[in-house]
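[Structure tokenization] protein backbone as discrete codes
[Encoding] learned vocabulary of local backbone shapes
[Protein] chain in single-letter code, fold in tokens
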Amino acid sequence: MSELQPVRGTHDLLPDEMRRYRRVAETARRAAECFGFQEMATPIFEFSEVFKRTLGDTSDIVTKEMYTFTDRGGETITLRPEGTAGVARALISGGLAQHLPLKYFYSGPMFRYERPQKGRMRQFHQTGIELLGIREPLGDVEVIATGAEFLRRIGAWDRAQLEINTLGDTESRQNYRGVLVDYLSGHKARLSEDSINRLERNPLRILDSKDKGDQAVVADAPVYTDYLNAASRDFFARVKAGLEALGIAYVVNPRLVRGLDYYCHTCFEVTCEELGAQKTILAGGRYDGLVGMMGGPETPGVGWASGIERCAMLLRETPEARVPIALVPLGERAEATALRLAGELRSLDFVVDLGFSGNMKSRMKRANKIAAKVAVILGDNELDQNVATLKNLSSGEQSAIGLDRIADALEAFR
């Protein structure tokens, strides 16, 4: 039998990497909390229809990347490829529309069957926010500002670039769609098979194509912003004015689009060139048509998602583990006292590593291995005097401390 390995495109989060992951996720949660977003979670798997309705039968995610299976009850289930659809489903199934506006933060694993590479895994993790029930441009500004604050707090904002664009309203989208179809039809011979299939059903998705031939055609396509109506231009102007008022630098990228029908008005991405090909670290936009498309009440929405793994790569240093105290009982008699002492110290939020076996030399070797700064030694001599020996592992100094004063003495080593 061959040696067991993790499934391709997945990886273990061992302690050093887990601390980086946790730093990103917790920082995102705290930043979102400052803007009034409350944490929630949806199931890791949903009925497949949740994603087919929202992502569309012709999207790459649905046709090529979703992990879909039939469960024992005969239901078709999909591991979530993104977070927004589940939040929208929760709004509908939970009858939450009566409580609008709603501000949600989420964090957790997502799944896509993609070619693994640096910064892109088949099981990956995202944080994200969704603002539901707000139609005004200020909602877009607040959502982008939340993302900027999160990235500032992890030290990535000064190395990143915010790109924004507008998709306009439904009228503007229809105007542009007609012009785009005319242009793409004239270059049909150069399009990929997937894009030819999308030409009639949803030509805007061709603008998202990763095919190099498609991208060459799209490069000369009419620009979306040239076909905006007055209301759409005004909405975008107010978003830009809000960002400028907050001092949030941005670049307008007229080629930045979202191919899905329920997206409208603002779309945005934050990229960081030092990550290479997978450089997008946060992306989002307005999706006023999503909840209605899923069968719920017409509900405006705007949000973003951010890749935890990619953001973790941008941390300037790995967060340090909390420094443990090495508790060293010598002999059976000391074990019961050590267990009680360990419990008392842990209840005071000390990190305690309790040596399980071995002589004094091996246990002290263990203390050095875990980078403890102090060892608390309990042997027969100490127990007879109702004390413990505290040894400073940096200086080598040691002293006898009464068992009732151990916690106070250890404060200097937290």
